[in-house]
Amino acid sequence: MPTGIVLVPNRQSANHVDDAISQARQAHDAGVRQIWLAQQFDHDAIGLAGLIGAAVRGLGVGTSVVPLNPRHPLIVAAQAQTAQAATHGNFSLGIGLGAHKPEEDAFGRSWPNPVRRLREHLQVLRSIFDDGVVGFHGDEFTAAPEWPVSVAGGTPVPVYVAAMGPKALQVTGELADGTLPYLAGPRTIGEFIVPTISKAAADAGRPAPRIIAMVPALVTDDVEAGRALAAETLAFYGTIPSYQKVIAREKLDSIADLAAVGDAETVRAHLRRYLDAGATDVALSPLDHSLPALAPLWEVTASL
């Protein structure tokens, strides 16, 4: 089972980047071969992935995910190619459509037409990564620089989208290499995501897409406390309509039921359900970021 783990730097550490590299090196030494970094409002996820991949050779690094807004695809392409060159081919770019409320709070505005913006963003990235040139004039973006856009050693760059809705999955299948659904349970993956994105990719003449299920997880003997932590940590997602649809499709009482919580074998069994449903990969998103809680997840990741 291809597996990875989301790495979250200790924001109380003396040096954010040093801590991230140290965690990544420990995870790699424990047998982990792929880490993912989320973009929030502190570190730059693409830049940090490049630094980690350069420092820990052989470790796959990726972003899960970088929101499209307010980023222009030319800037994202430049960052991604630089990270790919730094990691000697071990970087993967994961992008997402973003969420209106956090964007409004942070930037004072939000961006309409998310699926159209996704399509045009991917069209620009595809042109740069596949051909090394771009001359794009769309409704949402213009990307027609006079200067080179390619970086030696910076391609190819696998591109994944955190897509769960039908329109986003259609665009992702046509233009990206796969999807990174977070909190999409096995039923959602098997009955909806796999057939939708696979058909879109096949119709576009693209290879079968990777479906990388991002699963919140905690290895613990105190299942009750672990489930309480999951409910607290994931409560925000339960307020978002797209995740509410997932809960309904999975026929669950709570979004916390999507978390893999329990001893190591229980967590492994939970993750295998995603592979049985058609996911090509799974990635564990730790519910507890302390080192004592991370070490068992590294072992689970390495043993699958």
Automatic annotation (TrEMBL):
One molecular function GO term is: oxidoreductase activity, acting on paired donors, with incorporation or reduction of molecular oxygen
Read off the SUPFAM superfamilies from this record: Bacterial luciferase-like
Q: Which keywords, in A-to-Z order, does the entry hold? A: Oxidoreductase
Domain Luciferase-like: residue ranges: 11-280
Query: InterPro entries in the record, alphabetically?
Result: F420-G6PD/mer, Lucif-like_OxRdtase_MSMEG_4879, Luciferase-like_dom, Luciferase-like_sf
Q: Name a Pfam family for this protein.
A: Bac_luciferase
Q: Which PANTHER family match?
A: 5,10-METHYLENETETRAHYDROMETHANOPTERIN REDUCTASE (PTHR43244:SF1), PTHR43244
The protein here is known as LLM class F420-dependent oxidoreductase
Per the UniProt entry, what species is this protein from, by scientific name? Answer: Mycolicibacterium bacteremicum
